[in-house]
Specification:
The protein has about 400 residues and is α/β, with parallel strands linked by helices. The protein has 15 helices and twelve strands. The protein has a single domain, classed as 3-Layer(aba) Sandwich (Rossmann fold), CATH 3.40.50.1820. The radius of gyration is 22 Å and the shape is globular.
Length: about 400
């Protein structure tokens, strides 16, 4: 439950809309990004598979790409615009007749320089957040590893839209299915559709990087072995089954305590920083606007107020299923494993024993809040790049076999 989990326990101007394409479904009107980061008072925090799988998944899909970059004659994008952090913004249409829905998936992508050898970090946000939760982290990662690819997914009702194929009484209502298997299937479809649009014969060497609910989704995906031998690593950010499950009892109370609307985007950014939901103004400036939508789209711009893009209370029936068996699935994943936490108190017994047995790498960032990738993007990027380098199979240099040495005339 993203930013909500820890709190309940412890105390874009946008680019012009892309031209219409035969299968493109435009995303709901984006919200203008603030021109400046609001100043805080003295009490505020300072910044501190193989190819057959890919083609099979898209056989019944209509896929469209809308990539928006500022043109050479236009002013450069502001620091809080997605083009500062990612190379492409993709809208991926998909129809699943078997399950009776049509989707317009939304992702941000910077492709790897060489998909055959350079890593692809696939990121998934937590509940209530969006793909831009990884924006500043993506920027920091590219400073350290310029050839890497980054794919940031957006879940249904968090930027991606899902509609039933059959007529409904209210066409605006998305099917209320936020079960973990469904969210995991959405993630796999987004990955495979992205690979198809990029003409990758197979996935690049892949590392999954999930925050909170996003970690549960990607861990579930890893447990299915759907990505095959291309999966090198699984990285979970500030999520542990024990503390997540215990937090659920307080969720409704916490959601009710949040402001239902904000008079402006700047006000929403300020609220996130002053409540220490986010602790990094640079991250807040890019991620917070994407969390909101106009309360009444017909209201003139100067009179607009904003509300949450994703209504979380209706997802309550699915909460207990999100984190069940998270620890065991994480530990059994056939990939190198890394867990980054904001505090050691979050380790449950199963993970504590496994960590002492060396079954996964543990890194604690005590200065960060629950959104570790937003609060400490530089540090998280350093840890993630180091983790990849230690587990990069392409970098392994094995000694020659004895038979090869003999054939070369070497003494053994």
């Amino acid at each position: 439950m993203s930013d909500l989990l820890r709190q309940s326990v412890d105390n874009h101007l946008p680019p012009p809309p892309p031209p219409a394409q035969p299968h493109a479904r435009p995303r709901p009107d984006p919200i203008p990004s603030p021109n400046t980061i609001p100043e805080l008072d003295e009490h505020s925090s300072s910044p501190s598979s193989d190819s057959s799988d890919l083609s099979a998944s898209s056989a019944d899909s209509a896929t469209s790409i809308n990539t928006v970059r500022p043109s050479s004659h236009e002013q450069a994008a502001s620091p809080n615009h997605w083009t500062t952090y990612f190379a492409q913004e993709l809208y991926l249409d998909h129809v699943d007749n078997a399950k009776g829905f049509k989707a317009c998936y939304h992702v941000y992508l910077t492709p790897p320089s060489d998909p055959q050898k350079d890593p692809l970090f696939i990121c998934h946000h937590g509940a209530g957040a969006t793909g831009l939760s990884f924006a500043v982290f993506a920027q920091e990662l590219h400073k350290l590893l310029p050839t890497a690819g980054i794919l940031s997914l957006e879940a249904r009702a968090h930027g991606s839209t899902i509609h039933p194929t059959a007529p409904q009484n209210d066409d605006d209502d998305e099917p209320l299915d936020f079960s973990l298997p469904t969210l995991s299937a959405d993630a796999l479809t987004m990955i495979n559709l992205t690979a198809t649009t990029q003409n990758w014969p197979t996935l690049p060497p892949t590392l999954l990087l999930g925050h909170s609910l996003g970690a549960a989704i990607l861990t579930d995906l890893a447990s299915t072995a759907a990505l095959g031998a291309q999966l090198l690593g699984l990285i979970n950010l500030d999520i542990v089954e024990g503390s997540a499950v215990s937090a659920l009892a307080h969720m409704q109370t916490h959601l009710a305590s949040r402001p239902s609307t904000f008079p402006s985007i700047d006000a929403a950014i300020t609220w996130h920083l002053r409540t220490r939901t986010l602790r990094n103004p640079a991250s807040a400036a890019i991620s917070v606007p994407s969390l909101l939508k106009p309360s009444d789209p017909s209201t003139p711009s100067e009179e607009k107020s904003y509300t949450w893009l994703t209504p979380l209370p209706p997802t309550a029936p699915f909460w207990p299923t999100w984190f069940t068996s998270l620890s065991s699935k994480f530990l059994s994943a056939r990939a190198a494993k890394l867990l980054i936490l904001a505090g050691t108190d979050r380790l449950d017994r199963e993970l504590m024993i496994a960590q002492m047995q060396g079954k996964f790498q543990l890194v604690v960032l005590p200065e960060a809040g629950h959104f570790v990738q937003e609060d400490e993007p530089e540090r998280v990027a350093e840890v993630v790049v180091g983790f990849w380098r230690r587990n990069d199979r392409g970098a392994l240099v094995l000694p020659p076999k004895v038979g090869d040495l003999i054939r070369m005339g070497k003494k053994v």
